[in-house]
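Input chain follows. Return structure tokens only.
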Amino acid sequence: MIIRRSTVRIFRLAKILSIASRYGLDEMILEHEPSGRLAALSRAFHFWRRFDTPPAVRLRLALESLGPIFVKFGQVLSTRRDLLPPDLADELAKLQDRVPPFSSELALAQIAQAYGRPASQVFAEFDPVPIASASIAQVHFARLLPEDGGHEVAVKVLRPDMHQVIANDLALLETFAGLLEKVWSDGKRLKPREVVAEFAKYLYDELDLMREAANCSQLRRNFSGSRLLLVPEVYWDQCTTTVMVMERMRGLPISQTDALVAAGIDLSALSRAGVEIFFTQVFRDGFFHADMHPGNIFVAVDPAHHGRYIALDFGIVGTLTDSDKNYLAQNFLAFFQRDYKRVATAHIEAGWAPSDTRADEFEAAIRAVCEPIFDRPLHEISFGRVLLRLFQTSRRFNVEIQPQLVMLQKTLLNIEGLGRQLDPNLDLWKTAKPFLERWMSEQVGKRALQLAVRQESPYWARTLPQLPRLLHQALAQHAKPTDISPLLLELVRQQRRQTSWLVVIALLLATLLIGQHLF
């Protein structure tokens, strides 16, 4: 097995080197080697090569030739605009996760292996022709057995042997990342090994379809009863790590704008709803769909759900802590209010910028990036360029790019693309500002205090009876004869019991007063 695995990797490496030579990737990398000798040697060895296309385009074509894992790597890399030149990031963003479907025989074999019985005993109907295919899995339509409800479903089936394919390609990517750090003058700043490790985690998460089913279920619960977003129901009894079964959703792809207009969909309202969905996921839930490209977004046109978004493909989600959400909301509002000083100080207070950073200089740099984009429609703004300039400013001031926000940056760029497509005149700032102001008021106002009391009341109920004992122990620890005179020690002993109960009574009164005003 080990010999076979090594042989596969050798052949795979040979193919990678051949494709790299064909597109001149060796020159692209070696020209950044500090001494310049390796680049000159490569040009001398490949004296016959002439390239008419830009390096960024050649890199994209090479990744497409190398197959789906490298395509996905390029897609992930395109989100790291803090690391890449703008032309390279823009070109990698064009990569599409389109691969030919695997045979229906293999799909049926995967299903039989997952359930321990053939598909005919799990589904009343199963369409062997896939409706969608990507690098990790493909989707078939089916119908459950009558005893399971007889619902129409979409069945996502993992590609066979994906674990081994990914392990081989990741091993090669890790090797290349190590070489890149050594031969590229900017290699250490680009952190290629960290990027590959991040990519590996993201890939292995996608291989577990139970994880994706859980993501889908969570998002559906978050938007239960929503007038904006539909999320399919998961049929857990039919889900495994290699097969996911969910409700079949019907709608039009969001990219088919002419068909949406013909169906009576208001594109301007749809674009505003998309912004609200995004900010609701991020700031209300801290849990957001992080792969919102047009292929994963449909729009319902049936009378019951007319005009609602339909979310699909939940392999990639992002999460934010309460601290992240508060920090982001403050920064967004500060941007909307053009309070660049607050933006600068928030970065320093959060520790993202060094404590010795001059806030006035940081404020001026942020103002130079953001001021030109206000009061302009979306079609005149490129968030890609804005993000790039912000990242350049961040590097200048040694600001750490937080890894938990990488997916958020990617999703914001997806939102930009959808917004341009639906309504080029959408003003993202004016659409988002009321939502964020309302959200912030809920975090710091009366409603926030009411929610906090409700959430903390079970903890108080458990803790209050323990306070006399805890306070007695604290006083006993501090009231030692070596630290306090005998007279004071006696006074402390007399006051312990009274003080303990006074504290308890005061806390109970405070709780009752708060409850009276809030509830």
